[in-house]
Design a protein that fits this description.
The chain is an alpha+beta fold. It has a domain of 72 residues: 2-Layer Sandwich (Gyrase A, domain 2), CATH 3.30.1360. It contains three helices and six strands, in the order αββαββαββ. It has a four-stranded antiparallel sheet. It is globular, with a radius of gyration of 17 Å. The N and C termini lie far apart (51 Å).
Length: 105
């Protein structure tokens, strides 16, 4: 009986963590680095998480910046953001990518 309860408790904790992640990705008109969490970028023939290729920050309420660690990955990151279903359009400034979050309507 105790092992069933522990199993149930573990499943509930996993479900709650998943729900929190999904809420973090919700677009609310304010920029949040979690919007880009889980985005995969093709980098030298393999899919890599965006967080491994650059530092994602929200310096302003409606803008995200990505400071890319490797200059060669900038184009791949831009392409991944454009092809995602997020509806965002990145702009590049050297190794810094800016993503303006449009206002909700």
């Amino acid at each position: 009986m105790s092992s069933q309860f522990d199993n149930y408790k573990g499943n509930c904790a996993k479900a709650l963590d998943h729900f929190k992640k999904e809420l973090g990705r919700l677009r609310s008109g304010r920029a949040s680095p979690s919007i880009l969490e889980g985005l995969q970028v093709e980098y030298y023939g393999s899919n890599v998480s965006l967080q491994q290729l650059g530092l994602v920050a929200a310096p302003e309420p409606r803008m995200l910046t990505i400071q890319v660690y490797d200059q060669g990955a900038v184009e791949s990151i831009e392409k991944a953001i454009q092809q995602s279903d997020l509806g965002l359009n990145p702009s590049r400034d050297g190794s810094l990518i800016r993503v303006i979050i449009p206002t909700l309507n």
